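Project standup — Tuesday

K.O.: blocked on the structure for the chain from last sprint. Re-posting the sequence here as requested.
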Amino acid sequence: MSLKKRDIGLWIGPLVFFLVRLFFNPDNLSDEGNAVLAATLWIGIWWVTEAIPIAATSLLPLVLFPLSGALSLEDVGSSYGHKYIFLYIGGFILALGIEKWNLHKRIALNIVNIIGTDVKKVILGFMIATAFLSMWISNTATAVMMLPIGIAIIKKMKDLKSTPENENKIFGKALMLSIAFSASIGGIATPIGTPPNLVFAGVIMELYEVKIPFWKWIFFALPISIFLLSISWYYLTNIAFKFSKTNFKRGQNELSMQLEKLGKISFEERLVGVIFGTTALAWILRGFVQKLFPENNFLSKIDDTIIALVSGLSLFLFNSTIKTKDNVREKIMNWDYAVKLPWGILLLFGAGFAIAKGFKASGLALWIADGMTQLEGLSLILILLIIIASVNFLTEITSNVATISMLLPILAPAALVLDVHPYVIMIGATLAASCAFMLPVATPPNAVVFGSNYLKISDMARVGIWMNIISIIIVFIAVYYLLPIIWNFEAIGYPF
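H.V.: unblocked you, prediction finished:
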């Protein structure tokens, strides 16, 4: 991003804020609503232009909302302690435990190793491994972990005298893109897989006081993720890239060597694996188990955040087999390692939840709804397609979390005007935000694989634009036709 763009954003943000506060005084908009609108525009401009780091911009609600009279500091501050932020903290500590003891690498290598030596199957193995890991840990961390494994395979293929140079380049491009695509696609499947999903859950909780159970999201989103992953694999290996050589054994040997280097599965890996498996099972089964017990039972008070925190904290309780310099057994997780938490993302969550609270408390959401009456004549099909496509391409150049944090509080009142269920347009936007495949700046996984030097921007744009279009179609069909059936609600008619 150019320095000029950042400089412009740096000045435009506060300028817009003061112009709105001083000169924008429409009927039926309270002063608090005006303050929330002005502050949100300032924050949004700085997010989009990255005038200052996105995480730093995310602290602005703590300053602008209280000083402008929009919300009290206590109300704004409580958004940064939202339950879904702690869900992410607990889940990420668990992910760090998996990373610390190389369990994620063992899982990935075994999946790829089992698939076989065929070029297309190797790519499939990488995609399955990457997508699976991205369901539970950061898609960035997943891409970073899979990258060196992929590069090692590419180099082994290059070592073969029978492999033409151009064939190696084609395989390298396809494999790098497969890692980036599957890291984003896998994150769609679970509420914790990618930050936009958690932002959606938090905004729904803030605006409507509705909890989205873990299992409910999986039932809807996992099939989408699997289908989109299958389509992207076929597209990458049969349309975007074509291979004259389809089998190489040296790649299999490389995988076997890397597995041998890991050695036998350690006590630490087994323990982290058990905790990880138990956590995932608890998230999925919680809703079903709670239905079997009365509401006053302590089990009814357990939610996904508590499960995540218990799992994360448990890692600090168990000793490993490794001893420190002081001849004391090291813990499975220690704070020196846990501080790798993505604090910037947590602040971004907090800012998004604060904006949602401001929209509701100030009456800005209802004012926007009143101003959207011109949309009433449009069909839901057209509106949903426009929203999904717009978010999809917008996140090619902006942070998907920041974009969703700004858009969801606006889409909620739009649903009231349109007389549709807010889930339809809000989930459509949320899923679309995770389907940007064209540019290195679109998502962290895209940036990670671009840094491998196997890809040019033209390669990513040429292949990615068709994946964008495919994802728009799939997300639209899933949200418009399947979501109301799976979640059992009427798409037409505002329910709240």
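K.O.: great, moving the ticket to review. The mean pLDDT is 85. Residues 84-338 form one domain.
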